[in-house]
Amino acid sequence: MAQSSSSAQPVGIGWSSAALAIFVSILWGGNIVSLKIALATVPPFWCAFWRMVLGAAVLSAWALSRGVPLRPLKGEGRGLFGLGMLFAVQIALMNEGALMTSPAFGEVIINSYAIFANVVAHFAMNERLNGSRALGLALAFAGLCLVAFSRPDSALAPKPLEGNLVMILSSILLGIRQVYTRWLVQGTHPARAVVWMLLWSIPAFLLGSLVTGEPLLLRELTWRPVAAIAYQGVVVAGVCFVGWAWLLRKHPAGSISMFSFLVPFAGIAFSMALLGEPLRKGLLMGAALAVGGLLLVAFSGRSVTRDRPAGTAVRSSSR
């Protein structure tokens, strides 16, 4: 983590750390699949509300155990509020998109956020794009478009084009949030920033559910949606963040972030295994092109994807 790292120099990645990074990336890949399962029973705003309640509880307990004060310091309140509102809108769009498109397509699209993060960072944080990085972003964007205009399974995607476009909007906001978080944690402890991001989103989702008149449940509650929301809140927003933060305290951020490119492919595999989603050629080709382009960006010098602090590593744990 950016402000809580030990003074020791980062060390190379051993087998145990590589295994943990792969394991966490695979767990992240189940995020949209678990969301799709939950949304069949729990409406979007309530689904986000319960997820953030669980995630905030887990991360608050972890931060306090690490001795991180959660009370905002003087001058931090406005920035933390802005982060929470940006996060709430991004998650609301992601949940709405997940209703309309398939989990595999949604996972690939949402994980293309680095395209937009690098573009925003070019203008907002003076992280200049060289020729190789610009080419990588162009390839990744082409892959994103290929996925967005492909046709997922109709049983899982009642409105595929609309859902994919809403997912792209969420991905754009996620990219903006990464840059904003990166700027914010220069003066705020990353763990405190993430906890307050979740905390501020909770009343926003509650208000959204009341304004839209969402019922608490769409059908009888069973163990599946409960397990799905618990997975999002405890595993994705909690365990994954803690595991990634531990890795970033020991190893270079650029080396660890390479494992996150496994996430979209893990998402495709989860959707095939748990929901029976067929593997579409356009999805696979688009995902490969998007990930390949982002790998080119990552290997072409410093970028938001490679050189992010632990606080921004939560981009997948709290998407």
Describe it.
The protein has one domain (15-317). Helix 2 (31-39) runs antiparallel to helix 10, helix 4 (77-100) packs across helix 9 and helix 6 packs across helix 8 (160-184). It has 14 helices and no strands. The two termini are 19 Å apart. The chain has helices spanning 15-28, 31-39, 44-65, 77-100, 103-110, 113-124, 131-148, 160-184, 190-212, 223-250, 253-257, 263-275, 281-298, 314-317. It is mainly α. Helices cover 70% and strands 0% of the residues.
Keywords:
319 residues, mainly alpha, 14 helices, globular
- Bin the helical content: 55-70%
* Straight-line distance between termini: 19 Å
Largest sheet: none
Structural domain count: 1
Averaging pLDDT over every residue, what do you get?
89
SS-based class: mainly alpha
pLDDT < 50 stretches: 1-8, 303-316
Give the structure's gist in a few sentences.
Helices cover 70% and strands 0% of the residues. The chain is mainly alpha-helical and 319 residues long.
Question: What is the fold's blueprint, element by element?
Answer:
Layout: H1 15-28, H2 31-39, H3 44-65, H4 77-100, H5 103-110, H6 113-124, H7 131-148, H8 160-184, H9 190-212, H10 223-250, H11 253-257, H12 263-275, H13 281-298, H14 314-317
Helix pairs in contact: 1-10, 2-5, 2-10, 3-4, 3-9, 3-10, 4-8, 4-9, 5-8, 5-12, 6-8, 7-13
